[in-house]
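Hey, quick one: can you model this chain's 3D structure?
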Amino acid sequence: MEFAALGSVAVFGLVAVALLFDFMNGLHDAANSIATVVSTRVLQPRTAVVWAAFFNFIAFAVFGLHVAQTIGTGIVEAGVIDLHVIFGALTGAIVWNAITWGLGLPSSSSHALIGGLTGAGVAKAGWSAVVFAGLGKTALGIVLSPLLGFVLAQLLVVAVQWANLRSTPFAVDRRFRILQLVSASLYSLGHGGNDAQKTMGIIAVLLYSQGMLGGAFHVPFWVVLACQAAMALGTLMGGWRIVHTMGSRITHLKPIQGFCAETGGAITLFLATGLGVPVSTTHTITGAIIGVGAARRTAAVRWHVAQRIVVAWIVTLPAAALIGALVYAISSRF
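Sure thing. Here's the predicted structure for all 334 residues.
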């Protein structure tokens, strides 16, 4: 009886750590939702984070839970999951997020979590623990989400510039300042819909592994609400160093370009979330911002900044996996 009580305390302790990760995800990725709307001065920073946090929270009412299902059962075999694997996964993701947040680098919280989970799972049961079909779908999302964001943003720039050819610059600026409120809300909705579900999947598979879901894998509604709230609170805190990198260091944005970047990114996230693909909102919006900058002229993009971001992307998965594996190896001895 005492052992069972200790097990329950450990489970809910890990749930709290997972919600801490979700909070850090919102903090780290606030820039994804608000960088463009702040850099174009459509909204003040504090107003922007409240705006983004609201749409982060209500995302559960719009999307299904396909991404949570992928994370919960489609990266590592559910039978391999135990308290130590989850602890390793979350620690790997949190440590890597803290490092990149300190450096002001917009790396992917999503892929840090997936890397940490994969590393801890392999450390426990070898490569047979990995669900390669699900991991392959995620790897494809790593490549395709920024490319799709890039292409859609460029196409949107061309389309809206052609549609506003006869308008004065002042009229265009005023029009897209209003439209950017819509595009920012859509992107924040997509961000909350895709990113919060990753933590939902982690908590749900943890509860499932401990026999707390009644035998069938599903995501309890309290987990949905808790994850959406944690991410929204993190977004409210803002990640100002990364906002600066995303909003002004990659390229200079005007409202028309901010609208195109956010809309291209939002379309990408809506598609991915509907298909259950856990993509990086960071990769997506960065690709879209580079796309609108390159549409103006190639020299408008500060490629050395983009290069640093891409390096962080490449390193994220293996770095978080290594940390996750090490933490599993240490914690499983106790």
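One thing worth noting: The chain has twelve helices and no strands.
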